[in-house]
Amino acid sequence: MISNPNDPPTTVDIIQEVKPGCEEAFEDVLLGLTEAAKTFDGHLGVNVFRPTDSTHPEYRIVFKFDHLSSLQRWENSAIRKTWLQRAEKLTVGSRKMQVLTGLETWFTLPNRSAIVPPPRYKMLVITCIAAFPTLNIINFILQPLLVILSPLLRSLIATVVLLSLMTYVVMPRMTKLFAGWLYPTSKGKL
């Protein structure tokens, strides 16, 4: 199956402040919302980052979808709108929402208030540093086991394993490890 560049994998990052004292009720609504999202085709998962400051209870919710069109179906659904209406009376202000596609979704830190991707050259450097050893380890382990398969099928399996490891294991750790360089606090840093 060929990927459609106009319908890429998508991550939506939502920041919402909850009224003090409404956290428990918001948790119930959030559970309903995330369970409803799981029933939609293309939903790849959700991460919820709960408040660290009880005086300013701010939640960060990150949804991942296989395609932008899947996210749009979820966003336009009646069930989502129902859950959001329930959440409105429990929250302060409007929610901050950002939609990301492509490699930018690899470079997210859970404690950041918004996702602002680092410069592309930095993403390229970190991706190369991570992908080279990962690919070589995969080849070392898998190639002897897959020798009976056609080269094209071996390549497909290695690619799926590489991208899965990069997305769920390697890049989150690399992003944390290189956070100071990827997200410098002062503009004078490279």
UniProtKB/TrEMBL annotation:
Keywords: Membrane, Transmembrane, Transmembrane helix. The keyword RNA-binding does not apply. The lineage of its organism: Bacteria, Bacillati, Cyanobacteriota, Cyanophyceae, Nostocales. The chain crosses the membrane at residues 121-142, 148-171. This is ABM domain-containing protein. Residues 17-83 form the ABM domain.
